[in-house]
Amino acid sequence: MTIHWEAHACLPLHPRADFSPLDSLRAAGVHYVSVNVGMDMNPVAQILSVLAGFRARIAARPERLRLVASVAEIRAAAAAGVLAVGFDLEGALPLLEQPDMVALYRDLGVRQIHFAYNRNNSVADGCHDAQRGLTPLGRRMVRAVNEAGLLMDCAHTGRRCSLDIMAASAKPVVFSHANPLALVEHGRNVSDEQIRACAATGGVVCISGVSAFLGTRTPGAGDVARHAAHVANLVGAQHVGIGLDIGFRQNELNDDPPGDHDPDYWWPRAAGYNRAVERMRYTPVETWQVLSGALQEVGMSAAEAAAVMGGNMLRVAGQVW
């Protein structure tokens, strides 16, 4: 069975978030989705509350959703017609500078993590901040991620720092939602050097469906395929995946971090953002239903398209988890 893998999606960071939007992913043919449970700007208390709420909502819908920890469990869920779910963290601040926190989050369902959300911290550099490189604490964190069996992610990470992480990791590294800088000049996009380094680890670059990073106001399957083709032509289709980064907003829930929160710090206007991410557009969920054809239109075989849509991330997860 061909597995379709969505490497990053967002629900409101609120324990009462409605999980029914994930039904649209399942209906579009997705078998596994990584759902964000927190970023660097979210305090640990909020993240733990979100994890508790999300776990409870998944447990309450066993006929539709299943929290998984292995490739075998993903395949079993897919065979049963159930959407497999894992969690991801965006940033190292929730680790409280303690490498042992990585395994704790793993036990709560987190299967993927990157170390800096746009801005620098004591572990790593963000893509919209000064470039320093991976810190000594960051190197210990990479080891902790490898040992705990989480996917080491470099999305949102500074270019120099991402290269350091990929050099330090003993296991394949991914970019869960990123696009080629060669096609669209944006600080969130990744250079050909980063793409080659990711492939050298055996990893995967998952193409984001966010308008600003694709370079279009109305993103669709063709735009995603064009970016996927650039990565495939550079390093091979076996190193391409999909992380559309769809944000399922629910306006009735306020999921802002408590206290002072400056969106313009995390999403700087100088980097091209306007009122944080409010004006960003997402590739629709239905992209999954037509993506195979779009990938084949840019030169991939049916087998390569299937690998991009999930087989490649399934392979890496099998090596890491």
Automatic annotation (TrEMBL):
Under the heading InterPro entries, the entry gives: Metal_Hydrolase, Pept_M19
**Xref: SUPFAM superfamilies:** Metallo-dependent hydrolases
Q: Where are the transmembrane segments?
A: none
Fetch the PANTHER family from UniProt: DIPEPTIDASE, MICROSOMAL DIPEPTIDASE
Protein name (Swiss-Prot/TrEMBL): Peptidase M19
* Source taxonomy: Bacteria, Pseudomonadati, Pseudomonadota, Betaproteobacteria, Burkholderiales
